[in-house]
Amino acid sequence: MATETVISNPEQLGKPLGPYSHIARVKAAEFVFIAGQVAVDKAGNIVGADDFDAQCAQTFANLAAALESVGAGWKNVVQFTTYLVHSQDIGKFMAYRGREFPRLFANGAYPPNTLLIIDRLVQEALLIEVQAIAAL
């Protein structure tokens, strides 16, 4: 069975507030659930302490590695959940996605994303965590 994903933004919901879509309707043979990724390298070292953009870059690099490990890519992502420690970083997160998502999702069909502001992550220096669901 081939994966079929239809990304949509129904008029009734209005335009998304950022680079994401309201709905992903998916027909797939298999789903991949990727645990929240943070800004650590493969040795477990934090990348970009106090640098939100550097942490975003490492977090999304880790997601890319996870996707690649199962034979998938960005086109397979059907949902993100994003956790930020500081509400002041929302603008930086939107700017990062505004710069990077057109490259990652060349067709402009951005997966749905739920954004949550939380008290902290597993290590105090971490500022962002992103979980993903992919369809194969």
Characterize the largest beta sheet: strand count, sense, and whether it forms a barrel.
4 strands, mixed
CATH topology: 60s Ribosomal Protein L30, Chain: A
Give the number of domains.
1
Mean residue pLDDT:
95
State the CATH superfamily name: RutC-like
CATH class: Alpha Beta
Please state the structural category: alpha+beta
Give the overall silhouette: globular
Beta-strand segment tally: 6
Uncertain runs are: none
Rounded Rg: 15 Å
Number of helices: 2
Query: How large is the share of residues in beta strands?
Result: 25-35%
Distance between the termini: 9 Å
Order of helices and strands: EEEHEHEE
What spatial order of strands do you see in the largest sheet?
A: 3-6-4-5
CATH architecture: 2-Layer Sandwich
Helix content: 10-25%
